[in-house]
Amino acid sequence: NQYGFLESPYRVVKDALVTDEIVFLSAIEEADHVIAQASATMNDKKVLIDELVAVRHLNEFTVKAPEDVTLMDVSPKQVVSVAASLIPFLEHDDANRALMGSNMQRQAVPTLRADKPLVGTGMERNVARDSGVCVVARRGGVIDSVDASRIVVRVADDEVETGEAGVDIYNLTKYTRSNQNTCINQRPLVRKGDRVQRSDIMADGPSTDMGELALGQNMRIAFMAWNGFNFEDSICLSERVVQEDRFTTIHIQELTCVA
């Protein structure tokens, strides 16, 4: 909002009837409301039918009658963080393990060859786009030229305003050091002659693959004993994992020497 606070969307509930009206509230404003979960049971007329509904009120989890509910979550995902929403089958995980998993995702360094997950939650593309590391088309058009460091788009006639240039040029970031000493490198996904729409992803950044977030690698894993080599927390790796640089990362460090 205008004060810099993050706001979250909620559906308005009146006398147990869930309306299509959407309101945006900050964490301070939502505390006084009785907020039902997005998974609350409704009938065909969008009326809450459970005798008691699981709600959040005054920063506490409790149950209340449907008539007391004032708001309802828009999506089940909005009660968890971005990192937690990337964990598949989160509802089946132990809370402590989900906490560890969401924290460890923030510590991931970009691999040499990003590999998008075979099993995901559907949030991977949104996170990659919102992270700002991908190159997103400002206007639709046709790819005029593309190389490793630059993409030129000839903008469609219906998207060119009077007095504006009919060409968009996107300069890609190549092998630049990040604040964490990791490597920032953007790779084009389009070819000359391809048609792109507004907001299409045209180039991958670090830890993205085909416009999707790719923090790790797709591996075949076995939970088994293997001659005692994986005793307790030890793990055994195939030699091919090393040969194919599956978990290889590039780190760039700047050192200054005064003679």
UniProtKB/TrEMBL annotation:
InterPro entries: DNA-dir_RNA_pol_bsu_ext_1_sf (IPR042107), DNA-dir_RNA_pol_bsu_external_1 (IPR019462), DNA-dir_RNA_pol_su2 (IPR015712), DNA-dir_RNAP_su2_dom (IPR007120), DNA-dir_RNAP_su2_hyb_sf (IPR037033). Gene3D superfamilies: 2.40.50.100, 3.90.1100.10, DNA-directed RNA polymerase, beta subunit, external 1 domain, DNA-directed RNA polymerase, subunit 2, domain 6. Keywords: DNA-directed RNA polymerase, Nucleotidyltransferase, Transcription, Transferase. The gene is rpoB. Residues 136-256 form the DNA-directed RNA polymerase subunit 2 hybrid-binding domain. PANTHER family: DNA-DIRECTED RNA POLYMERASE I SUBUNIT 2. Its EC number is 2.7.7.6. Residues 10-75 form the DNA-directed RNA polymerase beta subunit external domain. It catalyses: RNA(n) + a ribonucleoside 5'-triphosphate = RNA(n+1) + diphosphate. One of its GO terms (cellular component) is DNA-directed RNA polymerase complex. It holds the Pfam family RNA_pol_Rpb2_45. GO terms for biological process: DNA-templated transcription. One of its GO terms (molecular function) is ribonucleoside binding. This is DNA-directed RNA polymerase. It is an enzyme of class 2 (transferase).
